[in-house]
Amino acid sequence: MQGRDLLLIVSVMAIWGFNFSMIKLGVTGMDPLLIAAARFACATFPIIFFIRRPKVPWRYLMGYGLLFGTGIWGMASCAITFGLSSGMASVLLQLDVLTTVLVGVLLYKEIISPRMWFGMGMALVGLVVSILYTNGNVTPAGVAFILISAICWPLAGVMVRQSGTRSPFAFNIWGMLFAPLPLIGLSVLFNGVEVLEITYRQWNAEAWLSVLFQAYPTTLFGYWVWNKMLLKYPMSQMAPLTLLVSVFALASGYLIYGERLSAAQWLSCSAFLLGVGLVLYRGPLPGAARTVKEQKAVS
After folding, report:
1. pTM
2. Could you read off the pLDDT of 6-57 as tens digits, one per residue?
3. How much is the CA Rg of the chain, to the nearest whole Å?
4. In three state form, how does the secondary structure of 255-298 look?
5. 3-state secondary structure 25-85
6. Cα-Cα-Cα-Cα dihedral of 91, 74, 207, 191, to 10°?
7. Which residues, 6 or more positions from 247, have their beta carbon under 8 angstroms from its beta carbon?
8. Residue 217 half-sphere exposure, CB side, CA atoms within 13 Å?
């Protein structure tokens, strides 16, 4: 990987990690579903007028908007609102790697290697320990919402894959067109129509900062770079770099909000991310590589 591209990707991972703190900034005083709706409204307009609609059936765009907007980021925002710290939200959202593997097995008959089984087991043990030894930064409701988010992540990928689109960035933009209305509808359903007036009256500079950061650096710039790099480098090389998101999220949560992990959580989160890394990694392990070389030398 070229040095400039690597620096660009790491910068995006830093933005995506910092984004969890920006989500927390917005949902601390506002309804999380409406904050997410505003994010996708800003990310969609006015850029959608300059992006040609991908040649796919509307149902895929609508399904993607519902899953990506409400399922992933609406639920992630709710998870933080219901007590999950921004850093732990980023760590636990890595569960999407495990749910993606399961979707691949169920829908595409993909094979899980022994190393992937081991990595999944390690990640799940780390997850359980991080929940059991919480210092107040993990709540049952928060875990439930982030689990929904992790389940919706691979389903959104399935929607993209089934659509057959060759323009992932355009697909993302046009799909987000269908994200705000379901989020607003859910907010009204749970809180009553008065939540719209309350949010309007309470909207402040922090809400704008949260929404605009989520819409532009995180969504538009971040996914533009990510999709561009996916066309240039293999997914096996790109995917492990997403673990950096959790590192930056934990750092920003500590620096901005003073969020801390318990000693047991530091170990369990490390085990969780290592397990996820084993699932993501597709190349030979270092020991296996040396063995192959030694066998060639002997022969």
Report:
1. 0.85
2. 899 999 999 999 999 999 999 998 999 999 999 999 999 999 999 999 999 9
3. 20
4. HHHCCCCCHHHHHHHHHHHHHHHHHHCCCCCHHHHHHHHHHHHH
5. HHHCCCCHHHHHHHHHHHHHCCHHHHCCCCCCCHHHHHHHHHHHHHHHHHHHHHHHHCCCC
6. -130
7. 17
8. 18
Tokens coding 233: 């480098």
What is the DSSP secondary structure assignment for residue 216, as one 8-state letter? I
Nearest of 133, 137, 43 to residue 90 by alpha carbon: 137
CB distance 19 to 72 below 8 Å: no
Q: CA 119 → CA 131, 247, 284, 287, distances in Å? A: 18, 19, 14, 17
Residues 167-214 have pLDDT tens digits of: 888 999 999 999 999 999 999 999 999 999 999 999 999 999 999 999
Residue with tokens 């959608």: 48
Rounded to 5 degrees, φ, ψ at 283 are -80, 175
Contact (CB, 8 A) for 131 and 24: no
HSE (side-chain half, CA atoms, 13 Å) at 83: 12
Residue 277: partners with Cβ closer than 8 Å, 6 or more residues away:
119, 240, 243
Residue partners of 193: CB distance under 8 A and separation at least 6? none
